[in-house]
Amino acid sequence: MAWIALTVIAILCVVGGFLTLALSSPKTEDQYGRRSGGEGKLIGKLLIVIPVVVWLLLTGIMSFRQVDPGYVGQVKSFGSFGEVVGNGTHVIAPWKQVQSVDVRTKQLKFKSNPSETDLKDSNTYDFGVAASSDTQQVYFDLALSINVNPKTVTKLLSEFGSDWREVIIPARVAQSFKAEVRKYKAIEVISNREKIREAARQNIAGELAPYGVTVSDINVVEVNFTPEFNKLLEETVAAGQAAAKAQAEVAFREAEGRKAVADAQAAKNVAIENAQAEAQKVTTAATAQAEATRAAADAQAYATKAAGDAEAASNKAIAASLSPEVLQYQAILKLNPSLQTAILPSGSNTLLDPTRLLNPQAP
Predict the structure, then answer these.
(1) Can you tell me the distance from the alpha carbon of 82 to that of 74, in angstroms, rounded to the nearest whole number?
(2) What's the pTM?
(3) Residues 132 and 205 in one domain
């Protein structure tokens, strides 16, 4: 628009210059040789040259366009959309417009009860109130992170204009989240918060994908309910905590009982093990004693047998060495150890006591 205005002004100046040249009077000389007139032609030439030079200079300057990092430039020419240029400096005809579009990751906030200060922020939107399956009101504060594909900028601007975010995003976010909340009772919303978030994220991403808008993430910043339901929820939580405490006490008592039983069983097992160990010791000692007794008996039997065998061998040797004369001598010694002389009749095996022969009165 500025270049068009500049061009119009330059054209008017040039036209004025030509008119001035056409209407200016020629130079004349008076009787003294002084020239007059011709000033109009000078002014006309200046009106032509100066505007043209200025127009050329400003046209060259206005042809350089700068697109900041994180933005792309949508080129428009008299209302029709042209190419999209990236960040940097570009040479574009000055009669064309370049609209900068932010393609950086942007965080949009959605609140059920936004304040006036919140709504002054262009990235904050009124989310509205969701309803659970049991018709309880649920208030959400959400944070949605998105970015735009530069290739779809032309489509977004041509179909929805510069306010394309306000047109396509808030309604879809609210619709997707409220649809997921209706699947749960109010008391189940908090425990299923992550399920609701993920399901809504997938739905929103699917709805925005055809427009080249990518959902990076969505976070549930806060979940709240009406004051009445909050009070009921607090009472329910308190009752649950009391029940949990009682249950914990019962579990503690049961654990103590089990521990006592386990300790008694352990003590019993230790006593049994000690008794078995003592019995094993006694059994081992008795076995050792029995082995010793048996060894002693075996040794005694062996000694007795050896002695008997030795005596038998000795007797056998003695029996083998005895002659009839020795036997008779031994018999005499048995009869009278003090006998000094014995008379043996020739050819007889009968022994005669000489004391009887010498002393018939002897007994």
Answers:
(1) 7
(2) 0.55
(3) yes
